[in-house]
From TrEMBL:
Quaternary structure, from the entry: Homotetramer.
Organism: Sander lucioperca (Pike-perch)
Subcellular localization(s) per the UniProt record: Cytoplasm; Nucleus
GO terms for MF: copper ion binding
Designated gene of the protein: cutc
InterPro entries, A to Z: CutC-like, CutC-like_dom_sf
Keyword Secreted among UniProt keywords: no
Descriptive protein name: Copper homeostasis protein cutC homolog
Length: 251
């Protein structure tokens, strides 16, 4: 483990961004809709986060939830979002796209990478849905992605640990491999020691109750699986600090 390990915190609010920085996160991945795995945040959120933190902010470019096979109209949305996020201070971008047969969509990714220059780009967990991770990794390297976020094509980084280790060995430093997915205080040391990764990705969130005094419990704003209206999840300074301490002790 190199001494330059870095924790990337996935955040969807200004409060979480500030807490993550206070706890020692070295970079933010800024999203909306974390229940759907992260979608493109608003320009307003990016601007206010940038006003309140000093660490780099990488912005998710993902127009909708679901799969990573995009229509021409969705691609146009992604192009526009890249342009807007660059102009509003994004330090990097996070994106990905697949073909219908589960390969990295090299043609589309090349186009999006060109639009994103000169910002560094992370290929997100669309990778965990590819049909051949060995081939997919070489494609990402050849395209020029700086980083891959992956759970090792499994439900969590701990379950996907054997593949993450193999990907890091395959990469040989040509691209950074960043484990993410279900990382917490109980499994981080095992993931770092077992993979050799120098970066990791997590949300480090805790739930807290809404400050609302009047509550209409008969109404739900989203689908039945959505978050409760009177509960909030935010990055927890103590959890971020704990994860950073574990990483330091693992070096």
């Amino acid at each position: 483990m190199a001494e330059s390990f870095l924790m990337e915190a996935c955040v969807d609010s200004v409060e979480s961004a500030v807490n993550a920085e206070r706890g020692g996160a070295g970079r933010l991945e800024l999203c909306s809709s974390l229940l759907e795995g992260g979608l493109t945040p608003s320009q307003g959120l990016l601007q206010v986060v940038k006003q309140n933190v000093k660490i780099p902010v990488y912005v998710m470019i993902r127009p909708r939830g679901g799969d990573f096979l995009y229509s021409d109209q969705e691609v146009e949305v992604m192009r526009k979002d890249i342009e807007l996020m660059k102009s509003h201070g994004a330090d990097g971008l996070v994106l990905g796209a697949l073909t219908e047969d589960g390969q990295v969509d090299a043609e589309l990714c090349m186009e999006l990478l060109a639009a994103a220059r000169p910002l560094p780009i992370t290929f997100h967990r669309a990778f965990d849905m590819v049909n051949d991770p060995v081939v997919a990794l070489e494609t990402l390297i050849s395209l020029g992605f700086q980083r891959l976020l992956t759970s090792g094509c499994d439900n969590s980084a701990l379950e996907g640990l054997p593949l993450i280790k193999r990907l890091i060995e395959q990469a040989k430093g040509r691209i950074a491999i960043m484990p993410g997915g279900g990382i917490n205080e109980r499994n981080l040391q095992r993931i770092l020691e077992g993979s050799g990764a120098e970066e990791f990705h997590c949300s480090a969130r805790s739930s807290r109750d809404s400050a609302m005094k009047f509550r209409n419990t008969c109404v739900t704003m989203g689908a039945t699986f959505s978050a409760p209206e009177y509960g909030l999840k935010v990055a927890d300074v103590r959890k971020v600090r704990t994860l950073n301490a574990i990483a330091r002790n693992t070096m």
